[in-house]
Structures are given as structure tokens and as C-alpha cells.
């Protein structure tokens, strides 16, 4: 089951479970659409995989299967693939 992480790993923007602009890779690394497109070029900086729109869990299912509250943030920041973060 998807973790539904609560924030963008790059900019720390809140991404609630129903955020239509949350993007994930196959390892559930989570980014906002702006960082995914403008900073990362659609590629996860952690695994090199593609980023796709995160599915939205129906509200009724969130009661039984809540979203994660653990925030993940890249301490070194994010940079486009192949370049180090500033």
C-alpha cells in the first residue's frame, strides 16, 4: 500500500493525501509537480526512475488506511539529474 508521504522531498511543500500535484517514483519518493518538472526533469533524484502522478486514496479509505505523517526531506536539497545540489 502506498505510504502517501505528506510533503515534497525537495521544497518541503505540504502534499495532503488528496493533492492532485503530488508525484511519486516506484519507491514512493514524493515531490510536488513543480519540483518534479522544473528541478528534476521528471526523474527521481534518489533512484533515477520516472515520476508519475500519485493516486488519490478515497477519503473513506483514509479512515482505515491513513496517510503517512513522516516527513522526508533531502538535506542536501534537490538538483537536476547528473548535477549536485547547491
From TrEMBL:
Organism superkingdom: Bacteria
Pfam family, one: DUF1272
Protein name: DUF1272 domain-containing protein
Organism listed in the record: Aquibium oceanicum
Amino acid at each position: 500500500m502506498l505510504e502517501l508521504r505528506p510533503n515534497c522531498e525537495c521544497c518541503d511543500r505540504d502534499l495532503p493525501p488528496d493533492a492532485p500535484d503530488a508525484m511519486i517514483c516506484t519507491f514512493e519518493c514524493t515531490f510536488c509537480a513543480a519540483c518534479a518538472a522544473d528541478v528534476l526533469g521528471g526523474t527521481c533524484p534518489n533512484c533515477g526512475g520516472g515520476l508519475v502522478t500519485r493516486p488519490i486514496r478515497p477519503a473513506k479509505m483514509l479512515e482505515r488506511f491513513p496517510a503517512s505523517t513522516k516527513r522526508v526531506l533531502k538535506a542536501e536539497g534537490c538538483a537536476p539529474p547528473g548535477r549536485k545540489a547547491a
